[in-house]
Amino acid sequence: MPGTDRIFPDFKHVPKAELHVHIEGTLNYDDAMKMYATHLENGHSVPDMEELINDETKKVKVESFGKFLEYYDKYCKLIKTEEDVYNLVYDYLMRCADEGVIYAEIITSYDHYKELRTDYSTVELPSIDEASIDEEDKSEAKPKLHYKILSYSEYIQTCVSAIKQAREDSGIEARILEALLRHNDVEACCKTVNMVLEAKNPYVVGVNLVGDEYNNPPEKFEKVFQLAKRGGLSVTVHVGEDPRVTPESIIATVDMYDLKRIGHGTQAARSEEVIQELRDRGVTLECSPGSNYATEFWPRDEEHPVTIFDEKGLLVTLNSDDPAFDGFRTVGEEYDHLQSSKGYTNKKMCTFTRNAVNAAFIGEALKDKLNAQVSVYETYCDLVDYIQSADTPSIARDSMHATLPSVGETFKSKFEDYLAQRTVSSLKEVEACTREGSKLRFLVETLHEKQMTYNEAVDVYDEFYQERFCDYVSDHADRAAGLVT
Ligand SMILES: [Zn+2]
Fold it and tell me: In whole angstroms, what is the distance from residue 59 CA to residue 52 CA?
């Protein structure tokens, strides 16, 4: 219906949440080129961007899984300084917020960061360790300006500063999972867990076992998981992503580590029993259809099982994984793709967001706040449905068009107040928004049913609300319309 967008200018996106994104894999082309130019100017070694970037898509090429890993390492070498790390996290979260993301759990990999930056001079190490320089980088490794390779605490603190600023600027919430690189040995992973525990940063809420699951199955890492859990860290594991592993191994992993959440789990689709087991145990799946197609872990000519999982009652979430790479999608694109291919309503899409919020490694207070934001949006969906379906007589409709924008403005400003406060105590504000939504719906309905003018309807509404406001809120306009008859 014309005018609807005008009435609700700040509800243009379904609220979204993601639980699975490798922060280094989010570095987009524009930001990468800025880093490239700065590093070149400062005499730092830089990767060959022509080799890495697909000229058409402006994303990093993914020619095979092997190439994906190779290019990933080369591309990530662009992220060097504290400023680079800060911008990487901040820019990603702000782009997410623009797509309507209200919560993101980002995977950082300090081990990867450190491993790949040994070819650069640091302020602590004025001489370059020649032995650690890649052949291809040797010719370029003549730093004019030294920079510091961050310690883990500094690295995480930089990420957290970016998270806080992004929250300040957009309202988005984010937390961090530290990656455990399974191609390193068990002791190296234990060291990573200890590093996280020692840093005691409240924004690092868990660990995520990443990398080649076929050659490094989860059972190898029992000691690591015990250490993480004893230290109070939540755990999730990339499992059932690679088609060479059996669906049954997903359940074995879930059992072994009592997992509530798994990365991908796509191969579960090959077994009805495994699907049922995952559903019965309430395990949440961090699905990334774009990623699975891009890496060819799921055949391009087969429908991705994300919809089957959802239809069979599994807890599905939508995630970008590594959105800077060819074929991978942003969170917004994952939502849009699923919604348009299945014809899902906006309200239905909120299911995936709620699944993510409920499975996030965060406390109940933050979950309540995020779910409340989803509730406000669902109320909005109901209103729009109502307005769109109402067979409003033309007089009332004209009146509605003339007056509803002001009601919409109130709704909008209250919601903005809520976002600005961003505290749990402001849940009352969300309730207020919902009441405003109910009021709007009531007015529309009254205009329609009674053919009143807008002001007459407001009078009825105010009189009615003096005594029955709270009851009305819970029962919405259907009941209210009956009561004013
Ligand atoms: Zn991943």
Answer: 8
pLDDT at 114: 84
- Quote the ligand 1 centre to 163 CA distance (angstroms): 20
CATH level 3 topology of 4-344: TIM Barrel (3.20.20)
Tokens describing residue 143: 């730093």
**Per-chain residues with Cβ under 5 A from ion ligand 1:** 321
CA of 263 to the centre of ligand 1 (A): 7
pLDDT at 424: 38
More confident residue, 60 or 140: 60
CA of 155 to the centre of ligand 1 (A): 20
The least confident of 51-60, 97-106, 279-288, 428-437 is: 428-437
pLDDT higher than 90, residue 138: no
State the CB neighbour count (10 A cutoff) for residue 424: 14
Neighbouring residues of 202: CB distance < 8 A, sequence distance ≥ 6: none
According to DSSP, the β-strands at 204-210 and 101-108 are unpaired
- Per-residue pLDDT, 21: 98
Local confidence band at 423 (pLDDT 50, 70, 90 cut-offs): very low
Cβ pair 379, 477 in contact under 8 A: no
Ligand 1 centroid from CA 130, angstroms: 33
Measured distance CA(270)–CA(50) in Å, rounded: 39
Query: What would the mean pLDDT of 462-475 be, rounded to a whole number?
Result: 47
pLDDT of 156: 97
The span from the CA of 305 to the CA of 58, in Å, is 28
Q: What's the gap in Å between 321 CA and the centre of ligand 1?
A: 5
- Determine the length of the chain: 485
Ligand 1: centre distance to CA 449 (Å): 53
Q: Say how many Å lie between the CA of residue 166 and the centre of ligand 1.
A: 23
What residues does each domain of the chain span? 4-344, 365-483
CA angle 359, 209, 351 (to 5 degrees): 20
The Å distance, Cα 314 to ligand 1 centre, comes to 19
